[in-house]
Amino acid sequence: MTLREQLREKISAAFYRHGLLCASYPVPIILFTSASILTCCYPLLRLPLPGTGPVEFTTGVRDYSVPSHEPQGDLGERPDWYRGLPVAYIQQVLVKAAVSPWDSSLVPVDVFRSPLGRVFNLVEEIRNHVHQDSSGVRSLETLCLQVSDLFPGLRRMQSVLPEHGCLLVSPGNYWQNQRELFDSDPDLLKTIQKHEPKGLHTSATLRDLLFGVPGKYSGVSHYNRKRVVTYTITVVLYRYDASFLGSLRSRLKQLYPSANCSLRDDHMVHVHFKEEIGIPELIPLVTTYIILFAYIYFSTRKIDMVKSKWGLALAAVVTVLSSLLMSVGLCTLFGLTPTLNGGEIFPYLVVVIGLENVLVLTKSVVSTPVDLEVKLRIAQGLSNESWSIMKNMATELCIILIGYFTLVPAIQEFCLFAVVGLVSDFFLQMFFFTTVLSIDIRRMELADLNRRLPAEAGLPPPKPGPLRPREVPPPPRPSPHTITLQTPAFRNLRLPKRLRVVYFLARTRLAQRIIMIGTVIWIGILVYTDPAGLRTYLAAQVSEQSPLGDPGGGGLPPHFGVAPVFHGRDPTSTLRVVHPAPQPTPLPENQSQGHHGAARAGPLPHSPPAIPQITWGAEDEEGWRRLSFRHWPSLFSYYNITLAKRYISILPVIPVTLHLSPQEAIETRHPQDTRHPPPPIPKVSADLQTDLTLYKVAALGLAAGVLLVLLLFCLYRVLCPRNYGQNGVAHGRRRRGDLPCDDYGYSPPVSEISPLLLRGHSMDIECLASDGMLLASCCLAGQIRVWDAQTGDCLTVIPNHGLHTQRDGLDSGAPELDYLGSEGHDPSISGDGLSEDEGYPLRRRTAPSRPTLFTDQPDLTPLIDTNFTLQPPSHLSTPPRGGFDFGGLVERRRPSLGDAAASLPQDRVSAVGPQATADWDSSVWAMELRGNLIAAGRSSGKLELWDAVEGSLRCSNEEGVSGITALAFLNNRLSEHKQSFCGGFSYVVVSGTPGRGSMPPSPCYSSEDVISCQLTRSVQCAHQKPITVLRAAAGRVVTGSQDHTVRVYRLEDSCCLFTLQGHSGGITSIYIDQTMVLASGGQDGAICLWDVLTGSRVSHVYGHRGDVTSLVCTTSCVISSGLDDLICIWDRSTGIKLYSIQQEVGCGASLGVISESLLVTGGQGCVSFWDLNFGDLLQTVYLGQSGDGQGVRQLLVLDNAAIVCDFGSELSLVYVPSVLEKLD
Amino acid sequence: MSLTLTAMSDSTASSGQQQWAGSGPMPQPPRGPYISVITNRTTNLLIRGVLLFSVGVFLALVLNLLQVQRNVTLFPPDVISSIFSSAWWVAPCCGTASAMIGLLYPCIDRRLGEPHKFKREWSSVMRCVAVFVGINHASAKVDFANNVQLSLTLAALSIGLWWTFDRSRSGFGLGVSIALLATLATQLLVYNGVFQYTSPDFLYIRSWLPCIFFAGVITMGNIGRQLALYEYKFTQEKTHQD
């Protein structure tokens, strides 16, 4: 034993033990695995969440120094991106300006025109600020970030964004920083609006960039109720110079003091931006993920033979995903921080780790013997695959190790992850997935067990059927294995899965409810977040009501914010602002809310609505936070500077407060300003107006909605019947009570199968025969009709009376039938063109082409044995037994095509035998159809052969003495009929020979062919008692008789091979097919299966009370029906009854098997389709509106997925392609 | 990458057509409408061709995007703004080339009389495609110390791809020959100034290009074989039935 084999054995044994362990203790192992997964994933919590949002870090201003490039040991919580110089330092000068005191003579434009006009002075001030100290003179020019051209794609922004110089943006950029342009601008808002992008925009707009505050906070609009304008002047600095900035700050504060401003100026914020993923970078990523999902899909699709395919697929995916998470978590735990973009390498990791092992495991376990215990199955499956799993794993590890030695950092990292991932995947496969698999297998076995013991129900009590001729004492049947299923009657029909889903949805109204809830939530969110919506409205309401409730502030205008409240409480603030401090001293928090403007306007308490309040709040401290996080990246990107993976430092803002006198505002007015906007409407009335409009619109909408609903309701009542939607009440045929309904009260969809009714017979149909293309039926009146099985057209009528064949073949070369069709009383033939042909055989000869109707007939040339004399040699020799009787040759010839036929008249004369005449006195007892020949056996014992197309009698044989009750076309060349009562049967040879040559000119028995009918052999005493059934197939003739025996004859020589004894009553039905399956059923209700080769009885079961009326076998089961109107389905190999179907009275014998798993049964005016495997009703097809009492007694399955059944005096042709498709 | 496939199309077009001219469509008895469409040789060929073409176009667009993003290839600036930032002719050429290769592989298998049986399932094909995209990804995004290392790594990866998913001698031979031809064609294209590489290290192109070509041929052949399997299955079923 080599080392390899030893190793293999050991591995196998280990896996076996492991499998046993996993299957024995599933719950503890799953708990353990989950715990270990969670433990390994715990370090992931410390990782930053993936995303592109910026990260902040705050430092103090005073001890600020540029961080070094080298990572220094432990610097507290200093992030690792905080290294080196930032891209830029941002210094914002936040300006709040207001015209105060507000004068009623001012127009809305005045709110922002003059405050904006001051920006030019400010910018000038900042630009020209120079700081001089010991280290030299510094101006803004030396410190600021010098920018060059704009990005090429931004030509239209050239006019507003600075180029070739300091990056300093302010609202003044709209007017190129020129006061003259601003003054001459008639409509400031239009200028600002001009540069706004159209449509939706999520990133920073130009307005945000220039104003430095979000647009709605800037206050530059006609409807600014606060009358305070806010904007910033943003200076982007390249270097940080504390002294310069300090002097600038103090200078501005000195010029424009904001007295009570308590903004903190000791923190600077560093903002780190991550790499933004653009769409072009996203496309490859998405592609890899699509490939990944396709891989997972195709892999998990292979999982089969388990209880819950989806569950196992989910377990497989969970295994792979958690192994990945575990690998990342473990790597983080040991200090390997992932630098790779996780999203990008993730799909490759999954592909490397793969789902193969999982699938191999599943397949291996599933393929173990089913009868083993679950534990053992798991263990065996594991140990079978252990070697290959280990080998694969070793190979993968080797490959990854090789990859590790490429010494490329990225690949090394990938390999490290992959190794840890592989190991954890192996761990999870062994513990998690194996356990889940064992649970699944156990569930499946339970389900199997349940299926083995199907729901049982006793046989229904025997009904005293009127058709039952005699009471047969039921044989003692303790039969332990005759299990009867609950008759899967109409109530528990198996609906298709999709229908069940639909019904579930319909029953619970799930979709509607979800949509409704979603709409409500959506509307709520919309209302709440809408800037002009509920929230601001509520806030305004609250702020309006508070002063009203305060008796001290009753005179205050309702539209002021919280300021008046504070005003009343804090009178000290007025004292402070009288002497504005050059350096703002930090005030306590509540005092910082004090306002400066009010103090200045102190002398005007009588006009409080005129005082715009300028307040400095904590939110102004970091006003840039309110901007989009793409604000700074987009500003820099205009100059082709990327902030990805870099950071900027935002310095504390410099607050500037501007108060302008009304006089100044009026002076700076543009002449058009007064004209353009309508005079401001007093606030309250405006509010009232908007409210009124709102109410009007709401009322109108409501009225319109109500009207619409009423209209629709009326339309519905007018157009739809009252019982619309109640299934089938309107249809007379479908009564609600007996409709197949499921538990939910939904009936199955009305079948799309519409039966084709073939009308024409005047009395009930007695016999039916078909060969797939044609269909022959015979009614009690003796009329035979031939139908086209495809279209349902009546082709030929062979009536029972007033018709006699005439024979004048010598003159015209063809016998002429006095054809009924020429009299025109048969609607189906008139106008067919066929009757004309029949009436004028001369014309036929000149135009030998057949009607196109029959061109699609099957090739029956092999059916016609042209070399007949060779076939049964015995009919030339002496009969081996006395029971054989050779009948005379009955032959009738017709000329074949044209001249060739005409040259042979003398032959024909000699060949003509006794005249063929139809026997109209007796009724047809048996009928068969093959090719286009109808064989009809009559009660007088006469056998007739009719041409199905032309309706002409081709030949007849009157050898029989007693009536013919059974007929069978056999082996395509012999027709045999049985004469009952005499206990024998005989063969009649029917041969068709063409007029000339050996090859028939037409593919079927055409009228030119010679048909001969000859009794070749008869077995006189086949049974002691009359023969009741006769079947022929596979070279055997099987007869069943009332003498309780079945006999099997060889066809060639009529030799009796076996006499099968086993029934305790007369044989009533026999089934034999080409595969030599023989089943017989008797009057004792017993069914026997026989081996035709040996003559032994395979199984013997009692199934019915009373006669077995028909028997059909499929490859897996035997279907029998009895006089007790019960259809039983038996397992063919074991003889166990699978289930039974209770039929309606009188319809018991009508059944047929369409395909291997589709059974069709007849009922009262309907036919039902059943799934043979499950015994579930698939569909019921109602045959007609009338005739409730008429049952389907005969049912014939055609080849082309159609069934034919009799329905009183009508025939019904039902195509069932859809049922077949569904089943397949 | 994309250019590569152009060259392949040039080289394989002629041979492919010869191959198909030899095997004329056999008359098939009509069956059901769907089955007959599938089993009809010409229609089947057409469907497979179209599928392979679209796969090739898609992969070319996506992978070219990777390269253009990293400024590995430079196209003239005026076409950069066009669809997916590459010249219009790249994608159809790649599509044609991949259709040719995908049809050529099963054909050669049939000619040699050794049907490819190794890992014939869609999940394996998907894995192969993912690895191919990964190789492209690595060539574009991973920073290697030098070009030799990069090329050697990619070559090892490509051979690994072949060993993992193909393992047929015919596949290897076809892959190598097509990769060489394609590299030659790319050289010619670059020499004539149709486009250029930012840092060529192998005459005018990058030295890892043949590896990528090879991996692409193996991948496309894999897909083509898998698609051809359907036709094979149907014909087998038919012979069973007959």
From TrEMBL, chain A:
Q: Where does this one sit in the cell? A: Cytoplasmic vesicle, COPII-coated vesicle membrane; Endoplasmic reticulum membrane; Golgi apparatus membrane
Q: How does it sit in the membrane?
A: Multi-pass membrane protein
> What Gene Ontology terms describe where this protein resides (cellular component)?
endoplasmic reticulum membrane; ER to Golgi transport vesicle membrane; Golgi membrane; SREBP-SCAP complex
Q: Which residues does the UniProt record annotate as the domain SSD?
A: 281-439
Q: Where is this protein chiefly located?
A: membrane
Pfam families of this UniProt entry?
Answer: Beta-prop_SCAP, SCAP_N, Sterol-sensing
Q: Where is the composition biased (Pro residues)?
A: 459-479
TM annotation in the entry: 20-45, 282-298, 310-336, 348-372, 393-411, 510-528, 697-716
First and last residues of every WD repeat:
1060-1100
GO molecular function annotation: sterol binding
Q: What biological-process GO terms show up in the record?
A: cholesterol metabolic process; regulation of cholesterol biosynthetic process; SREBP signaling pathway
Keyword annotations for this protein, in alphabetical order, are: Cholesterol metabolism, Cytoplasmic vesicle, Endoplasmic reticulum, Glycoprotein, Golgi apparatus, Lipid metabolism, Lipid-binding, Membrane, Repeat, Steroid metabolism, Sterol metabolism, Transmembrane, Transmembrane helix, WD repeat
Protein's UniProt keywords contain Transmembrane: yes
What domain of life does the native source organism fall in?
Eukaryota
Sorted alphabetically, which SMART domains does this protein's record hold?
WD40
* Region (Disordered) residue spans: 455-484, 577-613, 805-864
- Record's InterPro entries? Beta-prop_SCAP, HMGCR/SNAP/NPC1-like_SSD, SCAP, SCAP_N, SSD, WD40/YVTN_repeat-like_dom_sf, WD40_repeat_CS, WD40_repeat_dom_sf
The job of this chain, per UniProt, is described as: Escort protein required for cholesterol as well as lipid homeostasis. Regulates export of the SCAP-SREBP complex from the endoplasmic reticulum to the Golgi upon low cholesterol, thereby regulating the processing of sterol regulatory element-binding proteins (SREBPs) SREBF1/SREBP1 and SREBF2/SREBP2. At high sterol concentrations, formation of a ternary complex with INSIG (INSIG1 or INSIG2) leads to mask the ER export signal in SCAP, promoting retention of the complex in the endoplasmic reticulum.
Q: Which family does it belong to?
A: Belongs to the WD repeat SCAP family.
Name-wise, this protein is Sterol regulatory element-binding protein cleavage-activating protein
Automatic annotation (TrEMBL), chain B:
InterPro entries in the record: INSIG_fam
Record keyword Transmembrane helix present:
yes
Q: List the record's Gene Ontology CC terms alphabetically.
A: SREBP-SCAP-Insig complex
Q: Could you tell me the keywords of this UniProt record?
A: Cholesterol metabolism, Endoplasmic reticulum, Lipid metabolism, Lipid-binding, Membrane, Steroid metabolism, Sterol metabolism, Transmembrane, Transmembrane helix
Q: What is its main location?
A: endoplasmic reticulum
A Gene Ontology molecular-function term?
lipid binding
Comp. bias (Polar residues): 1-21
The family line of this record is: Belongs to the INSIG family.
Name this protein carries in UniProt: Insulin-induced gene protein
The organism named in the record is: Sphaeramia orbicularis
What gene does this protein come from?
Answer: insig2
